[in-house]
Amino acid sequence: MPELFSERVDYAADHLLESAAPEDPFALFDAWLVDALAARDRGEVTEPTAMVVATSLGNRPSARTVLLKEVDGEGFVFFTNYTSAKGASLTQNPYAALHFGWYALYRQVRVEGAVARVPPEESDAYFASRPRGSQLGAWASAQSSEVESLEALAESYRAAEERFEGQDVPRPDHWGGYRVTPSLIEFWQGQPSRMHDRLAYRRTSEGWTLTRLAP
To answer: How far apart are CA 33 and CA 74, in angstroms?
Structure first.
């Protein structure tokens, strides 16, 4: 087992200042996402749209990584199987936390908020844009359920191929999008000596408030 006590990075980056922060947190998120996409093109970031989605079922937290597929002034959208573990959690407790880790840029973003399914037409539009193989996978995989074997999963995929051979693959009723409408968006910028910048936007009835948090 490697010795971990001395594993650390002393970050060096420009400060994240309140004076330069926009009133709308989505404007700052968009700018950081553009930076992450550019870092991807330079080979520094592997999955710039990857985010951890944390949910809770029966007071037991659970987290997994999914891909952000849309962000606008209303929130953050991802797509999944509604009958999956995360879908079951969100049915019981429709709140989630998101985490974006752009570590090569010494940046993180945390989001907390209420979750609701997007309208069916939005799910239809995104599903139609997916590669055919991914569309078939949505039919072949009962996400989060136990699988007898790899061969059984492959057979389920082959059955989906045969079922929709020569035709467009429709979106399954059990598959679609969720939108996380944030009440909190926190931006984290690494700084030397663990004196990191943390700016937290909180939604109020009158808009967004901005505060600095201790690292």
So the answer is: 17
- The CB density around residue 162, as the number of other CB atoms within 10 Å, is 8
Cα-to-chain-centroid distance, residue 28: 17
In a domain, 139, yes or no: no
- Among the listed residues 194, 198, 202, 212, the single catalytic one is 194
Both tokens of residue 144? 């989060």
pLDDT tens for each residue of 10-67:
887 789 999 999 999 999 999 999 999 999 999 999 999 999 999 999 889 999 999 9
pLDDT for 96-114, tens place per residue?
Answer: 999 999 999 999 999 999 9
Catalytic site residue 110?
Answer: no
Range of the domain at 97: 18-127+175-212
Domain count within the chain: 1
Q: Residue 107: which CATH number?
A: 2.30.110.10
Q: Whose CA is closest to 179, among 114, 92, 111, 86? A: 114
CA distance 92 to 95: 9
